Amino acid sequence: MEYRTFLAERLNTEPLIFRGCSSSELGAICLGAVLVWFPVGLITAGLAGAAMMGLGMAALSVIATIVIVASLFQRLKRGRPDGYYQQLVITQLHDRGWYRSRLIRHTGTWDLGRRL
User: Fold this and answer.
1) Tell me: the pLDDT tens digits for 14-62?
2) Structural domain tally of the chain?
3) Structure confidence by residue, pLDDT tens digits, 64-99
4) Which phi-psi region, left, alpha or beta, contains residue 107 (left: φ > 0; alpha: ψ -120 to 50)?
5) Is residue 108 part of a domain?
6) Residue 109 domain-assigned?
7) Is the distance from CB of 90 to CB of 103 less than 8 angstroms?
8) Measured between alpha carbons, how far is 51 from 53 in angstroms, rounded to an integer?
9) Which residues contact 97 (CB under 8 A, 6 or more apart)?
10) Distance between CA atoms of 51 and 42, rounded to whole angstroms?
11) In a domain, 111, yes or no
């Protein structure tokens, strides 16, 4: 029986950890979910008068958000090259004028600028 060993220095991209997401993607999803759901949970707990109930609701909402968003990323990334959705987000922000993209997005013929 032959065992294959994977050396970390030979990896081209981050390994996938959960539902097609790498650890940095999962960290970003988790951070966004925590920043959204914990204030919502605390406000709900303040209105209901039960702080632990709000924190529990926020924790369950964070877990549900991670699973749902990771599933959406998995569907978005299926069959596409590495870094596809990062370029998609950058081009969407560039089209709206919120971010200046360094990607070349020219349609048409290229010209060297010289004439004979």
Assistant:
1) 777 888 888 888 999 999 999 999 999 888 888 888 878 888 889 999 9
2) 1
3) 999 999 999 888 888 888 778 788 888 899 989 888
4) beta
5) no
6) no
7) yes
8) 5
9) none
10) 7
11) no
Instruction: State the Cα angle at 60 between 58 and 66, rounded to 5°.
Output: 100
- Cα 53 → chain centroid: 29
Q: Give backbone dihedrals phi and psi of 33, rounded to 5 degrees, phi first.
A: -65, -40
User: Could you tell me if 25 and 73 are in contact, meaning their C-beta atoms sit under 8 angstroms apart?
Assistant: yes
Q: What gap in Å lies between CA 6 and CA 10, rounded to an integer?
A: 8
CB 75 within 8 A of CB 85: no
| Encoded amino acid at 29, one letter | I
Residue 91 located in a structural domain: yes
Residue pair 21/73 in contact by the 8 Å Cβ criterion: yes
Token pair in block for residue 100: 């200046």
- Residue 43: give the domain boundaries: 14-96
pTM to 2 decimal places: 0.67
Encoded amino acid at 84, one letter? Y
